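The pair is quoted verbatim as follows:
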Amino acid sequence: MLQQFLPYLAAVLVEQVQVLEDEVLIVARPRDGTAVPCPGCGTPTRRVHSRYRRRLADAALGGRPVVIDLCVRRLFCDTARCARRTFVEQVAGLTVRYGRRTAALAEIVQVLALALAGRAGARLAVVLRACPAEPMTR
């Protein structure tokens, strides 16, 4: 049922969903065993270097911000001519390099910024739980 509300989670295995007082926490990981193409040369690989956790902010559900705790793999590229030795797998529709927001939340923030700009957009983003409530400085 969660995938009906968040269709971009179809590419991952959701291990746990916790509804906390101030947020919804989704613990997930990409499916193991899938070959991931190297972004440098395109050669698919499955050889794992290590794993680490990423915390991604997502659009709010039921008035609560959503945080996705995603365990991703760092993989080796074994192609000798490739400049990359390791790279991190990206989940289509969910992650981008160095991103701290899901693609869905990034789109919401971008639309708010283009439509309202400045302080009005920031205030609406806080109400929509798209950004954390922080005091605005001059």
The radius of gyration is 17 Å.
